[in-house]
Amino acid sequence: MGRRKSNNNQCSSSKEDTNMSSHLRFEDAEEAVEESSNLDQSMCDIDESDDKTSADYYFDSYSHFGIHEEMLKDTVRTKTYQNVIYQNKFLFKNKVVLDVGAGTGILSLFCAKAGAEHVYAVECSHMADMAKEIVETNGFSNVVTVLKGKIEEIELPVAKVDIIISEWMGYFLLFENMLNSVLYARDKWLADDGVVLPDRASLHLTAIEDADYKEDKIEFWNNVYGFNMSCIKKQAIMEPLVDTVDQNQIATNCQLLKTMDISKMAPGDASFTAPFKLVAERDDYIHALVAYFDVSFTKCHKLMGFSTGPKSRTTHWKQTVLYLEDILTICEGEAIVGSMTVAPNKKNPRDVDIMVKYSLNGKRCNVSRVQYYKMR
After folding, report:
1. For residue 260, what are the CA distances in angstroms to 45, 272, 294, 299?
2. Long-range contacts for 32-37 (Cβ within 8 Å, ≥24 apart)?
3. Could you tell me the keywords of this UniProt record (predicted)?
């Protein structure tokens, strides 16, 4: 098995809409459970002793140019937004646009170039100062206004906007919880016939064989130069790993867990429990579940969007790997059945708490377990 390139950034279906199933293919951007395992308490009771989390560092982190360089160089991400805007100028012509979490202002500049009447680019980090200079340097100061502050605290000089555009997605789709800021802006400023871009997002799940990497990242703590450090192992397995998965590692089907309609959903809809059934496509061992997301722009003349899945072109979001305590021995046709519960952490809502219940009743393996994970 060819191992994926390591990235040590550790955080780092209920089918509401059958039309947005995993059967969608996007254009290329450039064209029941009993045993509790690793935590014997509810998701609400996960240890909160460490106050230094993403809630503290979120806006400061976006003041550094490196993270913006990474996002801008993600051509799947950036070219998709560019294509959506440039190939659908009828949506933007003479319209007022709100860019939530504008960063360097690249989406605002795309909108201005596509004929928007005015664009309000809202950015809370110090990058807002750079965005103002970028807008001026490129001659769009008469069209793009950069506003520095939180979307929940600023005031717009207009009562309503025609379009809200944002690149709000985090690892595991919901990490950093910027979606709620988009929904706040939608409810406060979007005109009745207004458009949210993107307007659909879906979370997917699959299972992989990953013996070598699990041994390297998790089992390593059992024997560290002759010493037992397995107490760290218990924490390591709770932290989802953001990494690129080789599609050849996938041993089951990929299932849609949750679809979100950004134009209609309520903020609470980002918390959910979704069932899953992952059916083995070959005899193999299962070491981890893998989550990824797709994003769609359905208001375009032609459906556009992108996927962050293992079978698609790599993005800076990569995939999210959740290692299982058990090594599941699965035979072709057998199914891992369970559910995933996702909710913002109560103390630090930019973090994500995940609970997975899973069971396998197969010829060679019978297991039933609950595992808890925390992205932070």
Report:
1. 27, 11, 10, 15
2. 32/357, 32/359, 32/368, 33/338, 33/357, 33/358, 33/359, 33/368, 33/369, 33/370, 34/368, 35/368, 35/369, 35/370, 36/369, 36/370, 37/325, 37/369, 37/370, 37/371
3. Methyltransferase, Nucleus, S-adenosyl-L-methionine, Transferase
What superfamily would CATH give domain 198-375? Hnrnp arginine n-methyltransferase1 (2.70.160.11)
Compute the C-alpha angle 113/118/120, nearest 5°: 105
**Which residues are registered as beta bridge partners of 374?**
353
Q: So which residues are the catalytic ones?
A: 167, 176
Measured CA to CA, the distance from residue 297 to residue 299 in angstroms comes to 6
Angstrom distance (rounded) from CA 133 to CA 361: 60
Q: pLDDT tens digits, residue range 280-314?
A: 999 999 999 999 999 999 999 999 999 999 999 99
Checking DSSP bridges between strand 304-307 and strand 161-166, what pairing results, if any? unpaired
Helix or strand holding residue 77 (H, E): helix 75-86
Domain ranges of the chain: 55-167, 198-375
Residue 63's pLDDT band (cuts 50, 70, 90): low
Domain 55-167 matching CATH 3.40.50.150: the answer reads yes
**Three-state secondary-structure class, residue 223:** coil
